[in-house]
Fold:
Amino acid sequence: MLTSLVIGVFQGATYGLLAVGLVLVYKGTRVFNFMQGEFGTVAAYATWGLVANAHVPYGFAVLAGLACAVLLGLVVERLVIRPLLDSPKITLLVATVGAALLTISLTTLFGKSEGRVLAPALGSKNFFILGAGVATQQLLLVAVLAGLAVALAYFFSRTDLGLAVLATSQDAFATRVVGISVPAMSRFIWGFAALLGGIAGILQAPIGVFGPGFMTGLFIVPAFTAAVLGGMTSLPGAFLGGELVGVAQSLGIYYLERFHIPGTADLTVFALLLAVLLVRPQGLLGKEA
Amino acid sequence: MAAAAEALQRVEFRPSRSGWIARAAVMAAIALAIIAAPLLADDVRDQWIGYAAVYMVIGLSVNVITGHAGQISLGHQAFVGIGAFTSAYLVARSGISFFIALPVAGLTGAFMALVLGLVALRIRGLYLALVTLAFGQMTETTIFSIRGFTGGGAGADAPRPSLFAGHQAFAYLCLMVVAVFLLVDWRFVKSKAGRAIVSIRNDERVAASLGINVTAYKLFAFVLGGFIAGVGGSLFAHWNRSVATGSFGLSTALVWVLMTVVGGLGSRAGVLIGSAFFAVFQLVVGALAKGASFHWPIVGDVLVQTLSPLLGALLLLLTLTLFPGGIGQQLLPVRRWLAGGPVSTRGHHRAGAAATAAPGSEPGATAKPPHAAAGVPVPAARDEAPAEPAPTAGEPAVRVRRPRGGGRT
Structure:
């Protein structure tokens, strides 16, 4: 059981990382961004392509991968989100789903549909924590998540840019009145969210094998559940939610597996999502539903 | 006032006798073309027609939930899949007749939708879309992975009834089911429940204030959509003669949503054309490709098969940003004419002209303003907005403009 807890914490780090990007976009532009996972997939593919095919040093490849993700974020913001800003939110949701589908097809086109292996960033040693095998990559993932949590907290409470983003999310009109460009903020938010998604993808890809759409297929629903659990507008809530979803999922697998129920991971996440939305729709740390 | 007078004038338009004959001839030609198509086509093309009809049924079911009721369903594979596996199980393992299994598959789809609706319909908008997505994925990995029910990875047999074993006969069967559900959808939209559901889509709070039981009617739309999806699933299984869990992944469900959006939410003809296009396009690309690939400079070898989802997603994004009404909106002038209206609608520039002239003119200028306000789940062009008392049945010209323009802004 402790073993499942540890697995859950490490699994939850990826959910948390994705959820932060989801929350950022939701706070800034009130969009449910189903593209978030694909930023990660694209970054992972770009990094893999450079490392495995072009033999670029790992660090440069990672930077290039992140640049690809940010570029994709900006393109999506300009071509899909901006033209639809005045339409109903549900239209924007469908649009991000379409963009995700398009990206999945493009990665299939470029990367083929077979599974790919990206080398871990810090060697492939394994540790055992309370009986759970943990790869160095996973330790790195949790460390990056913790570092990002602190950095983001500082960014949104102490820097002008961070405060401007928050202001835009609260009242776009008033923000414009005091001289902050709302489109620039929207660009920044999408680029930044894509960067976070890219980090998540590059860190997650070496854990196992990855293929087209892997971040969307495996992680987007738990990540959304994490964001909703955290309150959808709360960045600390997203970190916390990610960890909670990871742990809950891991425990769900642990307890339900003995009844020979298939698909326990998805079942737990669905039950958790439903429970949160029905019982506490404002989430743990959210201020509004 | 001027607009109302203008509208009245248009109601008075009556085609001449030769006009009626021309309209009847065109309608007869369309009907004849659809009826004759499976007869004229060879075996492979008959398979395509059958598949297109299966997709049409699924498209109509998405249309009930998303088009009429305005609830996005990203987990449609749950409803279609349960119908497919139930039907396959009943026919292949229990030896029950296909003609009993077909409605039973619909009932299981309806039951699935009922269960989801009972727990989830209190949740609204974006969050409901999220719940349906999680539900679809959950169903895929739990229920569809029960080996005894679905045959695991290998899949389950789904034999066709002997009378409809051939591709041609099966295509006719599927087309008949499409015709039945077209009729159901048409009558449903005209019914009290249909009007209530459309009013809920337009504004839930206003509908509730008018005494409409919002949750009950949303649930009803869900159940009806689930039933149609279940029947579609049954046809899907028996069209393929076998069914496997792999057919009901997330991307399939998303394709079903996007074919309906591209077709035009709420527009029956548009949805049918969109669905048929996506179904046949997949098969045509598959047939052309046969695993073949061609070489591109940077990309390298490209599997031709991968181009079909690419085009689908592109079409969706283009539809959303440039033509939010989808194919249905582009068909509006044709539909108006067939229903006995004039081809052109003078003095209709602000709303109608933008819709009809969209493809040729610059998209940014004409298509955007009126559509952006209405958006997709509340589609701009509702040629059958039945919530409004219409002076003459079958005269859409008056009703075309109302939901799009003034009423909402």
